[in-house]
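Lecture notes, part 5. Sequence design as translation. It can be helpful to think of inverse folding as translation between two languages: the language of shapes and the language of residues. The source text, in structure tokens, appears below.
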């Protein structure tokens, strides 16, 4: 969660490791590249983490004060997944247009830096993370990187407050690509956060597997088997609280 939180900080403070408690909680991190404009292209950074011996890719979420950032969220009509970047996808795979466009504006630089960083540090794991809009971009990144880097590199993804990103064919592609031990994908939902219930499932949108849910009242974290589990975020349609979107992450 600290890496996702850092993506909301000014990138110069992330690079200098002066972004406050989130940076203080992750010593031994060297930032290798940053990008984005904090608007139509959310900020992102790539770093080496000594503690986990991995390369970290983190994406900023929506900025409610920035119109261009909000337009990424509102460009909600589904469009075909870019088969140049996702050659393993079929034409049946549809994703949120705004999220895909935001992803495409950063993917070339991330593709350039991540393989060289893996070689430079001699590591074989990539951690990808983000919150909200950043969570959606992070999952697109992960599916793309898993194919690009091949089976010798472990791509693990932990995201927070994930909106629905695509149709059932997309969810199946994510499940097939980010499968494995530990697990390879965790998307965490907090209590009555409305974001995981948007866009609505009834309109053809579907979450992948991998949900962990923070229960109201007890704050227990529970595993949610399957792609959409009525006992987790899916069951919150009549009780929503936007404040829950911001954590306790």
């Amino acid at each position: 969660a600290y890496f996702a939180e850092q993506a909301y900080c000014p990138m110069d403070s992330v690079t200098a490791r002066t972004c406050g408690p989130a940076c203080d909680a992750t010593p031994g991190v060297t930032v290798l590249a940053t990008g984005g404009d904090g608007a139509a292209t959310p900020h992102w950074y790539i770093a080496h983490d000594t503690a986990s011996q991995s390369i970290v890719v983190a994406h900023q979420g929506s900025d409610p004060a920035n119109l261009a950032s909000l337009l990424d969220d509102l460009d909600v009509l589904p469009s075909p997944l870019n088969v140049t970047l996702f050659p393993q996808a079929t034409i049946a795979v549809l994703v949120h247009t705004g999220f895909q466009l935001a992803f495409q504006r950063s993917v070339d630089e991330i593709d350039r830096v991540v393989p060289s960083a893996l070689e430079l540090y001699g590591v074989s794991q990539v951690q990808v993370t983000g919150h909200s809009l950043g969570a959606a971009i992070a999952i697109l990144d992960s599916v793309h990187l898993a194919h690009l880097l091949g089976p010798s590199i472990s791509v693990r993804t932990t995201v927070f407050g994930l909106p629905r990103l695509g149709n059932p064919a997309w969810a199946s592609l994510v499940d097939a690509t980010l499968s494995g031990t530990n697990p390879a994908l965790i998307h965490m939902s907090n209590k009555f956060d409305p974001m995981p219930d948007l866009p609505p499932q009834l309109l053809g949108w579907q979450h992948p597997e991998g949900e962990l849910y923070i229960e109201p009242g007890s704050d227990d974290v529970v595993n949610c088997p399957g792609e959409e589990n009525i006992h987790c975020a899916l069951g919150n349609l009549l009780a929503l609280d936007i404040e829950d979107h911001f954590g306790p992450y």
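The translated text above is only one of many valid answers, since several sequences can fold into similar shapes. The longest strand covers residues 29-35.
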